């Protein structure tokens, strides 16, 4: 055996770290990241020293993020449990409504971001 220490392998460490995380936590974390990004793109970022959050409004990007979130929440709901799914659905619905409010030309019911997965939001 060599006197040198075992070389540090960042990939092995990352694999070991992710192996310790439950699937529910990975799903919820991904959903929270999508929610946060969608909120910013809907113009809901907190006011900063250089202006209000509306400066980050980008409805095209928000639509993509909300649709991805809706697909993730809908597909994973049976596996993540009612407590997690309910919170994620509530956040998703709030984002869908914020998108509609921010849009100068609101989509028809059932045509908004993610509504093909969630049904019409009102």
For the sheet with most strands, the description reads:
none
Mean pLDDT: 90
Rg for CA atoms = 19 Å
Q: How helical, in percent, are the residues? A: 55-70%
With helices defined by DSSP (H or I, 4 residues minimum), what is the helix count? Answer: 5
**What share of the residues does DSSP label as strand, in percent?**
under 5%
Shape: globular
> Low-confidence parts lasting 5 or more residues at pLDDT below 50?
none
| E-strand count | 0
Name the structural class: mainly alpha
What does this structure look like?
62% of the residues lie in helices and 0% in strands. With 122 residues, the chain is mainly α. Helix 2 packs parallel to helix 4. The longest helix has 22 residues. The radius of gyration is 19 Å and the shape is globular. The mean pLDDT is 90.
Summary keywords:
about 120 residues, mainly alpha
Short recap of the structure:
This protein is mainly α and 122 residues long. The protein is 62% helix and 0% strand. It has five helices and no strands.
């Amino acid at each position: 055996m060599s006197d040198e220490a075992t070389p540090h392998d960042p990939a092995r460490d990352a694999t070991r770290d992710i192996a310790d995380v439950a699937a529910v936590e990975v799903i919820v974390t991904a959903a929270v990241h999508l929610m946060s990004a969608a909120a910013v793109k809907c113009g809901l970022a907190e006011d900063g020293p250089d202006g209000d959050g509306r400066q980050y409004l980008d409805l095209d990007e928000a639509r993509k993020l909300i649709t991805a979130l809706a697909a993730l929440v809908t597909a994973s709901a049976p596996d993540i449990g009612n407590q997690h799914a309910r919170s994620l659905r509530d956040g998703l619905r709030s984002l869908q409504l914020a998108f509609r409010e921010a849009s100068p030309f609101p989509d028809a019911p059932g045509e908004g971001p993610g509504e093909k997965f969630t049904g019409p939001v009102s």
